[in-house]
Each structure stands twice: as structure tokens, then as C-alpha cells.
Specification:
Chain lengths: 248, 232
């Protein structure tokens, strides 16, 4: 609670400093609007429904991609960790593909899947998949050998091993992978919406850029930053609630 | 002649071309506790690992199917609570499993801890759970690799007592590795001394009432302890 208060006070201090800089004209208001101006814009857009609409569209793109990418990443990571042949074939293919910057895949995905939702979800899923796949694989490789001996001596079958040993044993790594994937998802959501979309937070920033509305651009950036921060915060809190042993 | 429960014939174990054992022969009989002793690196743990099928070996080991093990380190799964960790040893998903787990938790005085995770327990409590987990499946053979080496003397005596009671109740065979001479005398019917590459010698434990820890202070016990020390 004390740490939380320190963080809040620090952020309030930063906003206050920003407003003071604006009042004393240390910064150009056209290039760097005041917090008060941003708040006014926020309210206008909130009541017109535009922000809420953009927020939901972007969040749905991120959530759908995170769910698909995480499931695929965990399943493929399990296969890589458990089956040597799979790792030496598909694992090496994934290693090659993950060397390509996911952003560079967007133009070809737009050609393949069109300018609609599918290309955006595919590119975000693509970026989400690799950190989760590699972390699941590494997590399984790093499971304490003694835990594997316990599973062997008590003759757990492969499904029991996956449920009771490999998935929970690799969980600390999987969580790190998902946190990296969340950050990657936001980057790719922004780029996908910036390049080819007609809605969403990234599109709104691109549109504001075209008409030189720095205030709207900054509002979009602040909302993106806030969303990323909140998503990570909720994720961390959920982990300590559902997996108490991980926080020890 | 009684048939052995575990029959080890011409056992060879190699690590990267370095031989640990050559042509080791050893029998373990039903309902006996056997201590394996010897200097560090003589292959005691390798022998247990071979019996448990954890490492490759040459030769033959005839053994029962139902084997349990208690490890030196804490091997409770940190992501499972106490009840789930004990249940791990029960292979089938029988509806009576929960009752059995509760029964065992009661025996080891940890019923109120059944929902706790291993990180919330002391070293002694964790090892009590390991003992319960090893015996709940009613195994024919329990292997133990220096199970009590990290415990203080009082906790060690308490858990040795649990173990002895479990052994008496379930009439199983136990093979354990130890460096602790007192522990070997207090628990084992037979003490086998290993030296590098070959089986050295074995002695029978002359003490019959080993549940009384006070025998540790008798002259007979101290003389026997000295005798074992000389063999090692």
C-alpha cells in the first residue's frame, strides 16, 4: 500500500510539473499540450463514444491474438520440450521464423489476408507466439530433474505428467513469455492499426497525425501506455492470486 | 531358501566410461530394512538410481513393480498442496483416494496442513509428507537416498519413528543410503558396505528393539558404532 501511494504521488507530481511548465510557457502548447487540455479532449471523445469504440476494437484484437498465440505457443513449446524430433524440425523452423521482425511480416499478411481484421489478428498472434513458445520450451528443459524422477517413480502417465509436472513446472518461464508477449502485442496492434485500419487506438493516432492534432495523438499514446501498464498489473496480480507458490 | 524381493546380478554402472560398479551382486529380501553405507563416491546413490531405473546399467535387476522413493532433497511439487502431493503417489483416480490421503495426514499429524503449499512448511514437515507419499501406495519396496540428512536431531528421530511405524504396519522392504552410522543402526536389519567398484561386506544388526532411541547410549551400541566406523 505504501509503495502504491509513493507511485501515485510521483505520477501526480509529474503531471503537476508538466502543467507548471505549460503555465510558464516553457514548452510550445501546439507541440506539447497541457494535461488540462488533454483531459478536456479526453472528456469530449469519451462522450462522443469514439474512445470507447477505439478502445474495445483494439482490445478485442489484442485479446483474441493473445489467446490464440498463447495456446499455440504453449502447445508447441510442450512439443518442443518433450519430443526431440519435433524440436529438431519444427523447433528449428520456429527459430528461423522468429528471427524475422514481426512488423516486417505485416505487408505480406495484408496481401495474404486482406486489410480487414484477419491480417491484424494474424500479425499480433505471430508476434505473441514466439516468446511464449521459446519460454515454454526453456521452462520444460529447466524443470528440476528430481521432480521428473518423482513422476517416473510414481509412474505418472504422459497426460498426468503434462498436467502435474511439465505445465506447472514451466509456468514461471511461461509467465515471463506471456508478459513479453503482452508488450509485443501492443506494439504490433499499434503498427497494424497505424498502417491499415479504419478504427482502433493506433488508427486514431495515425489519423490525428495527418491533421496535425498533437493533443489527440498524445491522448492516444497516453491511453496506450496506460492500457499496457494496467494489463501487466492485472496479469501480475492474477498470477499471485491463482499461483501463490510462484510469489515465494 | 527365501526368494529375494530384489535380485541384482552382475551389475555394471558406468559414467562417461568410468566404472562405478563391476559385477555387483546383491539380494534384498521381503520385509527387511537395508542400509547402504560407504565413503562418498562409492556408488550408493547410483545403486538406488539403477534399482529405480533412473540410470542405464548392464546386468540384471529383478525387482517388484510397485516401488516408492524418498529423496535427499525436497521433492514435493511446489505447485501442489500437501494433499495433492501425497495423492500423486496414488496412480488410480479412485473415489476413496481422498479418504486415504486424509487418513495418512492424520497419522503424520498434518491434517490441518492439507491445503498448505510446500513453501509454507518446515523441512521436517516436508519430509514427513515425503514419507507418507512413499508409503500411501502400499509399495513392495521403498528406496531412500539420505532422506534425513538435512534435519535436526529431534526432527530426525521423530521422522525415523514414523518411518519405522509405517514399515511395521505395511511390512514393506526399505533400502536406504546414509552416512549416519546411528541412523543405520537404529533403522536397518542389515548394513551393507560398498567400496568403489565392488560390494565390500555386510553385517546384521544385533539390536532388536530399535524403537527405543535410548539404546544409542549403551556400551553395546557404541562398540557396534565403532566397529562400523572401522569397516568404512
Amino acid at each position: 500500500m505504501k509503495n502504491f501511494l509513493i507511485t501515485i504521488i510521483f505520477f501526480i507530481f509529474l503531471i503537476f510539473l508538466w502543467q507548471v511548465f505549460f503555465i510558464f510557457s516553457f514548452i510550445n502548447p501546439v507541440l506539447f499540450p497541457s494535461p488540462w487540455d488533454l483531459l478536456k479532449i479526453f472528456y469530449q471523445n469519451l462522450f462522443s463514444g469514439q474512445i470507447i469504440n477505439d478502445f474495445f476494437i483494439s482490445m478485442i484484437r489484442i485479446l483474441v491474438s493473445l489467446i490464440i498465440g498463447s495456446l499455440l505457443g504453449i502447445v508447441m513449446g510442450l512439443l518442443s520440450g518433450l519430443i526431440n524430433l519435433f524440436q529438431e524440425t519444427f523447433g528449428k523452423l520456429f527459430d528461423f521464423l522468429r528471427s524475422i521482425p514481426p512488423v516486417a511480416m505485416l505487408p505480406i499478411f495484408i496481401i495474404w489476408f486482406g486489410i480487414g481484421e484477419l491480417s491484424k489478428i494474424v500479425v499480433i498472434t505471430w508476434g505473441v507466439f514466439f516468446p511464449i513458445w521459446i519460454n515454454t520450451f526453456e521452462g520444460i528443459k529447466n524443470i528440476d530433474l528430481n521432480y521428473c524422477k518423482v513422476a517416473q517413480i510414481f509412474k505418472l502417465n504422459i497426460f498426468q505428467k503434462i498436467k502435474l509436472l511439465f505445465l506447472p513446472g514451466a509456468l514461471p518461464f511461461i509467465i515471463t513469455g506471456i508478459r513479453n508477449a503482452i508488450a509485443m502485442a501492443y506494439i504490433l496492434m499499434f503498427v497494424a492499426e497505424f498502417i491499415g485500419a479504419s478504427s482502433g487506438l493506433g488508427y486514431r493516432i495515425a489519423e490525428s497525425h495527418l491533421v496535425f492534432r498533437v493533443d489527440k495523438m498524445m491522448l492516444g499514446l497516453l491511453i496506450l501506455g496506460f492500457l499496457g501498464f494496467i494489463t501487466d498489473f492485472i496479469f501480475k496480480k492474477s498470477i499471485s492470486k491463482f499461483f501463490p507458490w510462484l510469489s515465494k | 531358501m527365501i526368494d529375494p524381493l530384489v535380485c541384482i546380478n552382475n551389475l555394471d554402472i558406468n559414467y562417461n566410461g568410468i566404472s562405478v560398479f563391476q559385477k555387483l551382486n546383491l539380494n534384498i529380501y521381503s520385509n527387511e530394512i537395508v542400509a547402504l553405507m560407504g565413503r562418498s563416491g562409492c556408488g550408493k546413490t547410483s545403486l538406488l538410481n539403477a534399482v529405480a531405473n533412473f540410470i542405464p546399467y548392464q546386468g540384471t535387476i529383478q525387482k517388484p513393480d510397485n516401488i516408492s522413493m524418498i529423496f535427499q532433497d525436497d521433492t514435493l511439487y511446489p505447485w501442489l498442496n500437501v494433499a495433492q502431493n501425497i495423492k500423486l503417489a496414488l496412480r488410480s483416480n479412485h473415489k476413496n483416494n481422498l479418504l486415504l490421503v486424509n487418513e495418512y495426514l492424520e497419522i503424520i499429524n498434518l491434517k490441518t496442513f492439507k491445503k498448505k503449499y510446500p513453501f509454507e512448511l518446515s523441512g521436517g514437515q516436508k519430509q514427513r509428507i515425503s514419507v507418507a507419499r512413499a508409503f500411501i501406495n502400499n509399495p513392495d519396496l521403498v528406496l531412500m537416498d539420505e532422506p534425513f540428512s538435512a534435519l535436526d536431531v529431534f526432527t530426525k528421530e521423530e521422522i525415523q519413528n514414523w518411518l519405522y511405524n509405517f514399515w511395521q504396519d505395511y511390512q514393506t522392504s526399505v533400502v536406504f543410503v546414509t552416512h549416519d552410522i546411528e541412523e543405520a543402526i537404529l533403522l536397518a536389519d542389515r548394513i551393507i558396505f560398498l567400496s568403489s567398484k565392488y560390494f565390500l561386506q555386510e553385517i546384521k544388526n544385533p539390536f532388536s528393539n530399535r524403537k527405543d532411541f535410548n539404546i544409542k547410549y549403551s556400551k553395546k551400541f557404541l562398540d557396534f558404532k565403532k566397529n562400523i566406523r572401522n569397516i568404512i
